[in-house]
Design goal:
The chain is an alpha/beta fold. The protein is built from nine helices and seven strands.
Length: 244
């Protein structure tokens, strides 16, 4: 079991090794912290059960898509005591939904790397993408498809409605990352979903191609910026060695 009480990460590869060798993680959930979201992506793809230590401090009653709700669903799917035999710990609508999917056998599983030839996963902003970004991403997607590639662009190919608050979206995206040979990214440093997807791809040791490098002003004091910069500049190197 590992704990994340803060996200002042010094070496992301050391964290990945810990994650690959654990079954449960206790976390302080900080949904606005990019380092937290990157770690969550690595935990998620490895099928690690999570316990949210600050659960009482977060409003989980909303059922719209958000990382707090997604993480709450994830934590309850992995909790053997939820739901209780008498369903006494079902308090909200989202609790009822989780109980229903657990009744039909939904469990946490490690997502296995099974790349398909010529398949690309595109990491990009979705919900807060600007019109300019959407146009660029759509043109790029069409260009790759015409060139014979299979491309998974989340805003097009991932079903964005999710009665589990985003858990199903994250699962669909993670499986698409695992089935891709290459990860392309239109990097928006403000996109929280992109950071989670990057954590998934990093844990699977995927090569990364940065599409809008000329528009990015990297901050090397920002862990995610530093990872993306090193990872993309070493496209033929397994990501596992990049932050050393």
């Amino acid at each position: 079991m590992i704990q994340y009480l803060n996200y002042n990460i010094l070496n992301i590869d050391e964290e990945l090794i810990k994650i690959e060798n654990c079954k449960t993680a206790e976390i302080v959930l900080e949904p606005e912290n990019k380092n937290c979201l990157f770690i969550l992506g690595m935990l998620f793809v490895n099928g690690v059960k999570i316990k949210i230590l600050n659960e009482k401090d977060i409003n989980f009653e909303k059922t719209d898509k958000s990382f707090p709700i997604m993480a709450y669903v994830w934590s309850k799917i992995g909790d053997n005591k939820f739901p209780a035999p008498d369903y006494s710990n079902i308090k909200t609508d989202i609790d009822s939904r989780i109980a229903d999917i657990k009744r039909i056998g939904v469990k946490l599983n490690k997502i296995v790397d099974k790349p398909i030839d010529n398949k690309i996963f595109l990491i990009c902003p979705v919900r807060k993408a600007t019109n300019e970004q959407k146009k660029w991403i759509e043109d790029f997607t069409k260009e790759k498809q015409h060139a014979g590639y299979v491309i998974h662009a989340p805003h097009i190919h991932t079903k964005q409605t999710d009665f589990l608050g985003g858990y199903a979206i994250c699962k669909q995206n993670a499986e698409a990352v695992a089935s891709s040979q290459e990860i392309d990214i239109y990097y928006d440093q403000s996109s929280k979903g992109s950071v989670f997807d990057l954590g998934v791809a990093y844990a699977l040791h995927k090569p990364l191609r940065l599409l809008n490098r000329e528009k990015i002003l990297f901050d090397d004091k920002d862990l995610i910026d530093a990872i993306v910069k090193a990872w993309a500049l070493n496209e033929k190197v397994k990501s596992k060695s990049l932050s050393k």
